[in-house]
Amino acid sequence: MAYPAGYRYTKEHEWIEVDGNKGTVGITDYAQNSLGDIVFVDLPKVGDKVEAGNIFGSVESVKAVSDLYAPASGTVTAVNEDLANAPEKINADANKTWMLKLDLDGAQSDGLLSAADYEKFISEETGH
Amino acid sequence: MTETGTLRKTALNATHRAAKAKMVDFGGWDMPVEYSGLIAEHMAVRTAVGLFDVSHMGDIQLRGPGSLAALQQLCMNDASKLAEGQAQYSAMLYPNGTFVDDVVVHKLSGNDYLIVINAGTREKDVQWIRQTIGRMPGVHINDFSDYYTQLAIQGPRAAETLQKLTSTDLSAIKNYWFTWGQVCGLHNVMIARTGYTGEDGFEIYIPSDVATSERVWNEVLAAGAEFGILPCGLGARNTLRLESAMALYGHEISDTINALEAGLGRYAKLDKPEFVGRDALLAIQADGGPKRKLVGLEMMERGIGRDGYPVFSLDGAQAGERIGEITSGSPAPFLKKNIAMAYVPVEHSGLETELAVEIRGQKVKARVVPLPFYKKSKKSA
Fold first, then answer.
1. Is A1's pLDDT higher than 70?
2. B158-177 pLDDT per residue, tens
3. Who's near B71: CB < 8 A, 6+ residues apart?
4. What is B31-81 written as a DSSP string?
5. Mean pLDDT of all residues in A30-44
6. Which end of chain A is more exposed for a tag (fewer CB within 10 A), N or C?
7. pLDDT band at B318 (very low <50, low <70, confident <90, very high)
8. If you ran DSSP here, which 8-state letter would residue B253 be given?
C-alpha cells in the first residue's frame, strides 16, 4: 500500500492532507494493519479544539486500543459520522477514510514526515 | 527484532510466515495472532470451520502402575472415572487451592495418561509435576511436548472436513473422547473431540517434523476449502474462548485465584481422599465459600472493557468503590457485544447487577450476565 505523497505523517501513524488552512486527518495503512479489525472509533465533536501532538481520540480493534494524536492544531469542522457504524472502512482504505476535518491554526508542519520519510520510519520500526 | 531469535517456534512457523500471518510473542513462542483477520477467523469457526496450530501446548505422559494414584494426587478432578479413550478437564492446584495450571487429562490405556498443559506455563508445570509426584512409586513422567504438532480443527463443519482425511468414523467419537486412527496417511494419530472454542471440533496430534506438519496442515486446509475453512490465529482463539467463558491462565485462573472463586468447583472432586489443594478448598467451603466470584459482564454503554480495567460498584454500601478487575474483555465478534469476565465480591455478582467499568478514565455501565456468553446450539448428532 502506497503512502500518498501529498499527505504528511506523524510517528504515531496519523496522516494529514493540508489544503490552505484546511486539514483532513486519518490513520495510516500501517496503523490499520497493526491494529487489525477496527470496531470502535472515539472522535471529538465539531467545534472542539485539537492541539498538535496531543491525543484527540482513540481507535479500537478487537484486540487493542490505540490513542490518536493530532498532526496539527486547529478546530474540528467535520467528523466522519460513517465511522460510528462502519469503523471497518478504515481497514478497507485507510488513505481515503478520513476522521476529522480541521480549520488549522496557521501554517504548520513541524515534526511531520513526508511519505518517503514515513515509509523509512516504519521500515526501521518493524525491522523489515 | 532481535528477540525473535530467542522465541520458540512450532514446526509450522515457516508456513505461518509464508502465509503472511501476523506473528506475536505468546508465552515465549513466536505464534500467529491472525491471518486474514480476527473477525473473519472467529466467524469461520462459529459458522463453518477453522484450523489452529496449537503445537505450543505441552504434552506430559504419566505411565506405570502408579500413574493413576499420582494423577489423583496431582489433579483436582477424579481421573479414576476416566475410561480408556476418554478425556477430562482438570487442574493442578497449589496447596492453597490456587492454580498451577488447568489441564486436559487423557486416559491412553490402563496405566498410561497424557496431560495436555498450557504453553506459557510449560516449564513451571513440568517442574511442579516432577516435584509433586516424581517420588511416588511406579510412575514415570515423560515430557513429550516437542514430539507432537497439535492441530485444532474447530467449527460446525470440522467433522466433515476431517472425515475427508481419515477412515475413522468421527461420528463415533463423543465430545471429550478420543481414538487412534489414520489421518492423511499417518497411522495411529490421536484424534480427540476437544477444543477451546466452544464449538464442535477435533484436536489431532501428529509427528512434529516440519514436512509432516506442513503436509497435514495443507491437506486440512484443502479438505475444508469447500466449507470455507480459514487458518486461525491466537487472536480468534482468545475471542472464541472468551465468548464461551473458558478460563485462560494468567487471566481467569492464576496462582492468586482459587478453584472455587474461578467457578470451577464442579471439576474439584472434594470427595476424593486427597489431592494437592483439597484441604484449602475444604477450608474455604467451611468458611462460607469464596468471597469473590467470576462473573460475565456485558457493556451497556459505548466502550470496550479490556483486561485489567477496574470495576466499580454503582450502589449499595460500596457505591463508587473499586470492587474488582476485568480478567478478559473484548468485543465479541459473533455476539456483536462488548463482553468481559471479572472478579467481583459475591454480593455484587448477582445477575443483572449494574456495575461500572473504568475505561481510560471514564466510568461506563455494564451489567452482570450469565456465563457462558455463547453456547453452541444443540444438534441431533
1. no
2. 999 999 999 999 999 999 99
3. B62, B79, B105, B113, B115, B133
4. EEEESS-HHHHHHHHHHS-EEEE-TTSEEEEEESTTHHHHHHHHBSS-GGG
5. 95
6. C
7. confident
8. B
Task: Please answer yes or no on whether B360 and A65 come within 8 Å at the CB atom.
Answer: yes
Which residue of chain A comes nearest to B23, CA vs CA? A34
Interface test with B, best of A33, A34, A40, A62 (most B CBs within 10 A): A62
Distance from CA of A70 to the nearest CA of B (A): 18
Range of the domain at B43: 2-55+147-243
Could you read off the pLDDT of B241-274 as tens digits, one per residue? Answer: 999 999 999 999 999 999 999 999 999 999 999 9
Lowest-pLDDT range of A111-115, B58-62, B252-256, B265-269: A111-115
Q: What is the pLDDT of residue A45?
A: 97
Question: What is the per-residue pLDDT for B380?
Answer: 41
Domain boundaries, given as residue ranges, for chain A:
8-126
**Using CB atoms, which residue from B235, B238, B306 is nearest to A36?**
B235
In CATH terms, A8-126 corresponds, of 2.70.40.10, 1.10.10.10, 2.40.50.100, 2.60.40.10, to: 2.40.50.100
Residues B182, B77: contact at Cβ < 8 Å?
no
* Cβ pair B304:A40 closer than 8 A: yes
Q: Which residues contact B321 (CB under 8 A, 6 or more apart)?
A: B312, B313
Do B209 and B153 reside in the same domain of the chain? yes
**Beta sheet of A55-61, edge-to-edge order:** A38-42, A55-61, A65-69
A5 Cβ neighbours under 8 A, 6+ residues apart: A114, A115, A116
DSSP letter string, B119-139 = STTHHHHHHHHHHHHTTSTT-
Q: What's the ipTM?
A: 0.86
Distance from CA of B39 to the nearest CA of A (A): 7
pLDDT of residue A127: 61
| pLDDT value at A95 more than 70 | yes
CA-based nearest distance A106→chain B, Å = 32
Q: State the sign of the Cα–Cα–Cα–Cα dihedral B209, B212, B216, B218.
A: positive
Q: What angle do CA B252, B86, B92 make, to 5 degrees?
A: 35
Say if residue B240's pLDDT is above 50.
Answer: yes
Chain B residues whose CB is inside 8 A of the A127 CB are 1
